[in-house]
Amino acid sequence: MTQIKTFLLFYGVAFLMLCPQAIAADGTIRIGFNFPLAGGLELAAKHGQNAAELLLKDIKASGGLKVGDKVYDVEYIYGNNDADPTKAANLVIEQVSKHNVLAMIGPLSSKQAVPVGQMANAFSTVVISPWSTVPKTTEKMPFSFRSCFVYTDQTPILTKFADQEYGAKKGAVLFNATNIYSSGMAKAFIKDFEEYHGPGAVVANEQFRNGDTDFRAQIKNILLSGAEVLFLPQQYYEVPTVVEQMIELGLDIPILGTEGYATDELLERCGANCNGVVFTSNYLPGNAQGINKTFVEQYSKAYDLVPDEPAALTWDAMRALFKAIKDTGGLTGNLIDDRVAVQRQLAKLRNFEGATGMMSFNASGNPDKCIVVGKIVDEKFTTHDSVCP
Asked: Which of 84, 88, 286, 349 has the fewest CB atoms within 10 Å, counting from its CB?
């Protein structure tokens, strides 16, 4: 980690010395995207792109983005990080120094979002992650924001839900020990569950590593432990295999998941096997009202799809960014100064209505917002509850 920070600081300072007046002379505002267009989360990234393109279409239809007394064209610079942290960090250099972006969106995964945040802050350039929930994504990095909640907000809610809905006093976790999101979520759940029920209440603490596809040994251990509920903090593409093997081995206990479940791909891959699964989420599109209704209608019409969580969070991140740009009152043409001005306005964002609800950024760049408790019923997402700060 020290080597990464030294690397980021060196290149950040070098860039600022070489390019003190990086001006976009053609009247175009460029926004960089640092997305996993391959590597496991490409479908989520595609849905995020879809949402962003909707906003770009609206801007072009209105003749551009008006900031102060000037109207700008907007251009998106899409970069593929391949779900790789090093590639994600290198993309920041490319987008900031070569493409002169005003701000950046992404990555989706915490593993890439943390080093990207470090790099973006070295360059004093705003980055908003739509879907990275690890606290370190924004920690002590004033130019790093997110439109999703922090993962530690979810586990107290799931702990209480397991008790109130299932009467579960003994829990189990199954997580990816080589993934900071999955392992961090597991650690948070164990802490909250045992604070609620007492030491030793998590009776099975099972791990696996990247690339594993056979979870039978861990499932057998959970079965023998007497656990009454399983916390499974995984991404949507990993869940179906675990669930299938649970059914095969006769482990029939409720599953608690996280915001990584909230995509249609989970329903398509898991089918009826996932009925009854409960998860926390930033967003579910059902019963859409207000600005969310507008978003759902536009997205569904454009893509013949119901928007999912990555789409809604990207839409909110983009709209918050465009508002911050407008709120500067005018861009100077000095890209370094303008990046700082955008950061200052974004940090002031309060009571902003998005598709995922009302959002205000706190001092850490995290939004104070409601958490949805979703449940899969008849192979469809349903909203069970909403818990607000």
From this structure: 286
Q: Report pLDDT digits (tens) over 264-276.
A: 889 999 999 999 9
State the fold for domain 2-150+289-369: Rossmann fold (3.40.50)
Q: Are 275 and 261 in contact (CB under 8 A)?
A: no
152-284+372-387 has the same fold as 2-150+289-369: yes
**Could you state, in order of their start, the residue ranges of all structural domains in the chain?**
2-150+289-369, 152-284+372-387
DSSP annotation of 100 reads -
Q: Where are the beta strands (DSSP E) in 340-379?
A: 352-354, 357-361, 367-368, 371-377
What are 79-96's pLDDT values in tens digits? 999 999 999 999 999 999
DSSP state of 95: I
* Bridge pairing between strands 367-368 and 357-361: antiparallel
Q: Does domain 152-284+372-387 match CATH 3.40.50.2300?
A: yes
| Torsion sign over Cα 215, 217, 223, 225 | negative
Instruction: State both tokens at 132.
Output: 């990275």
